[in-house]
């Protein structure tokens, strides 16, 4: 990734960078303001703006993250070539986590335009199913589809809706992410089922048989 500094203000830097596209680079312009000490203190000590609805904070501790080497990053001079949304060594971990919570996973090669060029890909009148995302960070951003992604120190987080800063190169770290994602999704599904059961007459959950 190449950065071009285009602002004379030392506290506000305009960065023009290239993010992986489908066979070409897509220019992305973002603004970054260097935080002062007061801002850093506030960010590190204030709670999240949204409530922890699914009690994710109960699923791990700070020691767990250190033991999983989530905090490890790349050296200061490292630059990433292109943002790679998939790594072969973690395909099995991601697919197993998705299978464990009854969700879909797409960790293999994906073709650009699956979201933005559906009439050409599938013919006229075809609408992509809501619950089967054909994942591509660029296409999802174009379609305003929220995305969650683990972002290492050599990645560009500008196109992700909810970037998770952390090490994405160590298997034990990726296994930790997958475990937390799976447990959170299962908790969310249990909460949705409980809310649905409470809304029905009698408040009884439907039988699984």
TrEMBL record:
Q: Which GO terms describe its biological process?
A: translation
Please give the InterPro entries that the UniProt record associates with this protein: Ribosomal_uS2, Ribosomal_uS2_bac/mit/plastid, Ribosomal_uS2_CS, Ribosomal_uS2_flav_dom_sf
Task: List UniProt keywords, sorted A-Z.
Answer: Ribonucleoprotein, Ribosomal protein
Superkingdom of this entry's organism? Eukaryota
Q: Which Gene Ontology molecular-function terms are recorded?
A: structural constituent of ribosome
Mention any one GO cellular component term assigned to this protein in its UniProt record.
mitochondrial small ribosomal subunit
User: Which Pfam families does its entry note?
Assistant: Ribosomal_S2
Protein family per UniProt:
Belongs to the universal ribosomal protein uS2 family.
Designated name of the protein: Mitochondrial ribosomal protein S2
């Amino acid at each position: 990734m190449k950065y071009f500094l285009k602002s004379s203000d030392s506290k506000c830097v305009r960065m023009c960078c290239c993010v992986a596209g489908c066979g070409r680079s897509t220019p992305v312009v973002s603004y970054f303001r260097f935080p002062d000490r007061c801002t850093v203190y506030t960010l590190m000590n204030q709670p999240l703006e949204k409530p922890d609805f699914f009690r994710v904070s109960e699923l791990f501790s700070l020691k767990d993250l250190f033991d999983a080497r989530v905090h490890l990053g790349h050296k200061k001079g490292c630059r990433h070539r292109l943002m790679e949304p998939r790594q072969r060594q973690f395909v099995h971990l991601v697919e197993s986590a998705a299978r464990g919570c009854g969700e879909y996973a797409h960790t293999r090669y994906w073709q650009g335009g699956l979201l933005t060029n559906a009439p050409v890909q599938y013919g006229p009148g075809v609408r992509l199913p809501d619950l089967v995302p054909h994942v591509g960070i660029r296409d999802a951003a174009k379609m305003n589809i929220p995305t969650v992604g683990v972002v290492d120190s050599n990645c560009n987080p500008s196109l992700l809706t909810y970037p998770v800063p952390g090490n994405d190169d160590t298997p034990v770290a990726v296994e930790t992410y997958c475990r937390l994602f799976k447990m959170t999704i299962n908790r969310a599904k249990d909460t949705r089922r409980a809310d649905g059961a409470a809304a029905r007459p009698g408040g009884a959950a439907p039988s699984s048989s």
